[in-house]
Hints:
- This protein has helices at 10-21, 37-47, 55-60, 71-80, 99-105, 138-149, 162-170, 172-189, 194-215, 219-226, 232-243, 245-264, and strands at residues 3-6, 30-33, 50-52, 64-67, 89-92, 111-116, 126-131, 152-157.
- The protein is an alpha/beta fold.
- An 8-stranded mixed β-sheet has the order 3-2-1-4-5-6-7-8, with helices on both faces.
- Helix 7 (162-170) crosses helix 12 (245-264) and helix 8 (172-189) packs across helix 9.
- The longest helix is centred in the last third of the chain and has 22 residues, at 194-215.
- The model has no long low-confidence stretch (mean pLDDT 95).
Amino acid sequence: MTLGFVGAGNMAGAIIKGAVGAGILKGEQIHVYDLDTAKLDQLASELGVIKHDSCDALVAGSDMIVMAVKPQILGGVLTEQKMGLAGKAVISIAAGWSVQMLKDALPSDARVLRVMPNTPTLVCAGMSALSKDTSLSADESKAAEALFGALGRVTWVMESQMEAVTGVSGSGPAYAYMFMEAMADGGVLMGLPRQQATEMAAQTLLGAAQMVLETGKHPGELKDMVCSPGGTTIAAVHALEKAGVRGGVIDAVIASARKAQEMKA
């Protein structure tokens, strides 16, 4: 199988590096096109991918094609390449583009998969949601799952849940960074050097997330395990509850999901 990438930005680069690093594909099985020739040259030099000087050539030389361009650009690309995409397997990682929108823009015999990854994919700690409303073959679906699985965790969700995915994992890293920054700010206020406070906050969030994933325990149960009667943590939890942190985060997820719904309307 040859895998093509329309776009060679950060997310595409992460997927390519993950696929080669995990041994899923060899560099020479990956075709890439981007207007930024410097990015193409770098990927070709580092990983041995096949670079193309036109999108037409990329599409013609690839069995499965990942559309890794910005959502506002994708429509134009699909229109320009519509004839060449006939009979191809097309994976889109563009936010706001529903499966139906993709099908409407592609030839009737093109096979489609919608994926919502997130930025920690760049360090192989991503969370990618794959829409169950896919027309890929069974083998192509397995290949796509393996591809994104090399970059972190994957899960299959209903197409109707993809906007909720955007609110939780797609936009979620930003919430974590804000919470992390606030924790570090508190540490600085109480006398810690900035670098140490940031390291402590980041490792604490990483460790807490790993506890949830590895133990399978509910986050609330793990939170209770830290809260000793009359202790420091329950006092901190009380302060967070008074500040409305829980409700604010829920509202953030809803706001992101609703914005995603508006984008695909």
